[in-house]
Amino acid sequence: DRSPSRGLGDVYKRQILKGFTDMADKMWAGRFSKEVDETVNAFNSSISFDGRMYRHDIQGSIAHATMLGQCGIISKSDSEKIIDGLKGILTDIENGSLEMDMTAEDIHMFIEAELTKRLGDVGKRLHTSRSRNDQVALDIRLYLKDEIKEIKALVLKLADVLCNMAQKHTETVMPGYTHLQRAQPVTLGHHLMAYAQMFLRDLGRIEDTLKRMNECPLGSCALAGTTYAIDRNMTAEALGFDRPMVNSLDGVSDRDFCVELGCAISLIMTHLSRFSEEIIMWCSWEFKFIELDDAYATGSSIMPQKKNPDITELIRGKAGRVNGNLMTLLSMLKGLPLAYNKDMQEDKEAIFDSVDNVKLCLKTFIPMIETMRVNKDKMRAAAAGGFINATDCADYLVKHGMPFRDAYKITGRLVAECIDKGLTLETLPLESYRELSELFEDDIYTAISLETCVRERKSFGGPAPESVIKQIEITKKQLGAYYE
Asked: Is 79 a residue of the active site?
C-alpha cells in the first residue's frame, strides 16, 4: 500500500485524502467537471518514493529555467527569480525547514507548488515548454547517474580488497571443487581472483549502462516536443549529458537504462550471492576454512555455541529480491505502446530498491571479507584428502610417454586401491604403483605433492603463485583505469 495515510487514524486519513484532491485541483483540474475520487488520488500518488529525487528535480528545473531565460521564452528577470526560488527550496529541504508535502501527487508537483507559493505567477512560468513526462525521465536519469557512481566505487573497493587478499594467499593451498566434490588443488589467492574477475566485468557493465543513459530527454515535453524555440543542447550540456535524445517519443518512453542497470545490479548480486554461499560453507564446522570477525556474525537466541553468517545469508536472499525487481521492469515495459503510460510509474520502486540493496550489501560485505580470518591448516588438510592430485598422477605417466586415456585408467585403479586399503596416493607404496606401470619411479611422490601440483600449474590463468601474481597485476591495472 503506497498511500502515505497507511496506519493513520480515520480523521487524519480524510485530511490527507482531501489534500490530494486539493493538490489535483490546483494543478490539472481545468479539464474536469468533477473532483477525482479521493482514493484514486491517493492511489495515483508517487511522492512517497519519488520524493528522493528532489535534488535532481530542482537541478533539472534550474537548467530549464536558465534555458528559457537565455532563449527569451521567459524574461531573464523571471528566469533569475525562478532559479533563486528553486535554490531556496533546495536549501530549505536539506536543512529541514521545509518538509515534503506527502499530499502532493509527486515530487514535481510538490516543488512547483512550493515555487508558486513563494513567487506567485512567476513560479507558474517554469513549466513552459516542459511536461512531467520529460521531467520525470530526466530526474530518474540524473538520480541513477549519481547512484551508479556510488555503486561503481563500492565494486571497485571490493575488487581491490580481493586483489590485496589474493596477494597474501598465493601459496595458501586449498581444494578446488566441481560438483561440490574435491577436484584439483588450487590456492585461496587463485579462488579470490576468480571473484575479482566477476566484479571487474560488473564494472564494465555499469560503465556501459552509464554511457547509453547519458542522453538528455528534457525538451521532449509530453511526447512531441514543443513549438517554443528551446535549446536542448544547452540544457543537456548544463546537466552533464553527452547530448539530447534524438527522438521525443523515445525521450519520454525509454526506460531501457533502468532495465540495463537492473540487470547489471542483478549480476553483482548474483556474484555476491555465489561468494556468500561459499563463505557460509567455509564457516561451517564441516569446512572451517575461515572464521568471520565477531562484528560480522550473529548468535542464536537458544544455542550459545552458534556463530551465524547472517550477512551472507541475507545477501543470498536479497539477490532473489533484486532479480524480482528486474522482472518487474521487464514486465512493466513489454506491453506498453508509445509514448508515456502511467505503468511507467512502477519503474522507480523497482530500480530504487535494487540500488538501495546492492549498496547495502556491498557496504557490509567488503569489511566482512577484509576482517575474516583464514585457517590455512584446515584448507591444506582438506586439499590433502579426496585424491585431488589424481590428475597429476595421470599426467606423470603421460609425460613418460603413455597415452592420456591409458594413464587415466591406471590412476583410477590406483585410487580404487587406496580407498580399499585406507591409503592416499602419497602413502601408497611404490610397489603398488609399479604393479600397474613400470613407468613409475620414486619421483612420483614429488610429482603428486600438493605444492608441486599447484606450483606446476603455471599456465596463464592457473593457480601457480607466479600465475596468480600475474592475474593480480593485470586486474589491478584494469581497475586503475576506472579510477582515472
From this structure: no
pTM (2 decimals)?
0.89
For residue range 312-363, what is the model confidence (pLDDT) as tens digits? 999 999 999 999 999 999 999 999 999 999 999 999 999 999 999 999 999 9
Catalytic residue among 33, 97, 179, 301: 179
The Cβ of residue 468 has, within 10 Å, a number of other Cβ atoms equal to 27
For residue 430, the tally of other CB atoms under 10 A from its CB is 12
DSSP 116-178: HHHHTHHHHGGGTT--HHHHHHHHHHHHHHHHHHHHHHHHHHHHHHHHHHHHHTTT-EEEEEE
Instruction: Label the pairing between strands 181-187 and 243-244.
Output: unpaired
- Report whether 272 contacts 361 (CB < 8 A): yes
C-alpha to C-alpha distances, 457 to 190, 191, 346, 449, nearest whole angstrom: 11, 14, 51, 13
45 is catalytic: no
Q: Which of 75, 77, 284, 300 is catalytic?
A: 300
Over residues 389-430, the pLDDT tens digits come to: 999 999 999 999 999 999 999 999 999 999 999 999 999 999
Cell of 365: 560485505
